[in-house]
Amino acid sequence: MSTGIGERRYPCRRCGGPLTWSPARRTLACQACGAALPPDAPGTSPAAVIDHPLDVCLHAEAYPAQHGDDNDMRCTSCRGIARFARGVAATNCPYCGSPDIVACDAPHDRQGPENIVPFLVDAAEARNAVARWIHRAWLAPAKVARMARSGILRPMYLPFWMFDAHAMGHWDTGGGIRGISEMDFEDLPVCSVAEVDPALLECLEPFPAKSLRRYDSRYVAGFMALRSERTLVEATTLAHARVERVIAAAARRNRAAKDRDKLRVSKVEYTRETCKETLLPVWLMDYEYLGRPFRIAVNGATGVAAGDTPKSVVKVALLALAACWLIALVADHATALALPARIAQALWWTLRRPFDG
């Protein structure tokens, strides 16, 4: 994995041990003595999250040194960013009034996350979610279920770019039929860590918008938080590609079957595009089966699980035999019904043969 974000340490006032974020108690708690801060610390009501106009952020990323006559300042208290005209003395944050403001290079200041959805699912709940998911994957070998009970689950905050936009997609079927589909997208997530499968993360969505908070390092105490790897340009390209797929799928649902495969989105127009950097909570379990790597993930806020599992050769073979028997049952009813009895007789004869004189 990529490098993590260095965070503050919070000592327990009772025993001096480290306080860590407890998903079950929704506050900082000591693993040694059980002491905890009040449930409303670091805060249970969402502060105003930080959104930025996408075009402004893209321009700032492309031309980081060209700010004209303006200065961008970040508040170290609320992490809000404001722009002041050059020469104007910026002494207080316009959002919270704090005097602790510092210069930053861009409206989205890539030095750290701006928003966060804290872990709300603890390790026991995540392990139960993995077990339930494997139970539904009934073709998985029994050994995989045992791995789920004893495997290592890693809690991790993954960095995401999240996008809001109103999109208008122009499509045609190649036969003279054209149309327009409009959709609103809110908090569309694009992971900034390239090595995590985006299809797997999409299966974990949605992350609850009501749990989105302004970033506070206390939510990360005791957890690994990875740094962003993708640039905003790369993330925007991926977000637009996903928007196009969603619009195309919605347009195909309303077309006749003969036109669905021919439908293509020719252009998408975007308005009111905004973006924000956010940490989202994910539990990961990696394991190997017969030398092949597999991964199961759990949404750290909702408990939704997804992943990939190997297929049991025995279960697949039994399923194939059952399918063949059903086909035979349709083709020749009498022979199919007699087949199980004949197989049983053959097995019994095979078992008895060594003992017959």
What is the strand and helix layout of this fold?
Blueprint: E1 10-11, E2 18-22, E3 27-30, E4 52-53, H1 54-62, E5 70-75, E6 81-85, E7 101-103, E8 115-116, H2 123-136, H3 142-150, E9 154-172, E10 178-191, H4 198-204, E11 213-214, E12 224-225, H5 232-253, H6 257-260, E13 264-289, E14 292-299, E15 305-307, H7 313-331, H8 333-352
Parallel strand pairs: 8-13, 9-12
Antiparallel strand pairs: 1-2, 2-3, 4-13, 5-6, 5-7, 8-11, 9-10, 9-13, 13-14, 14-15
Helix pairs in contact: 2-3, 7-8
Characterize the structure shown.
This protein is an alpha+beta fold and 357 residues long. The protein folds into 3 domains: 66-104; 123-311, no CATH class; 314-355, no CATH class. The chain is 29% helix and 29% strand. It has 8 helices and 15 strands. The chain has helices at residues 54-62, 123-136, 142-150, 198-204, 232-253, 257-260, 313-331, 333-352, and strands spanning 10-11, 18-22, 27-30, 52-53, 70-75, 81-85, 101-103, 115-116, 154-172, 178-191, 213-214, 224-225, 264-289, 292-299, 305-307. The strands form 3 sheets. Strands 4, 8, 9, 10, 11, 12, 13, 14 and 15 form a 9-stranded mixed sheet that branches. It has a 3-stranded antiparallel sheet with strand order 1-2-3, with no helix packed on it. A 3-stranded antiparallel sheet has the order 6-5-7, with no helix packed on it. A hairpin with a 5-residue loop joins strand 14 (292-299) and strand 15. Helix 2 (123-136) runs antiparallel to helix 3 (142-150) and helix 7 crosses helix 8 (333-352). The longest helix has 22 residues, at 232-253. It is flat, with a radius of gyration of 28 Å. Mean pLDDT is 80; it is low at 106-111.
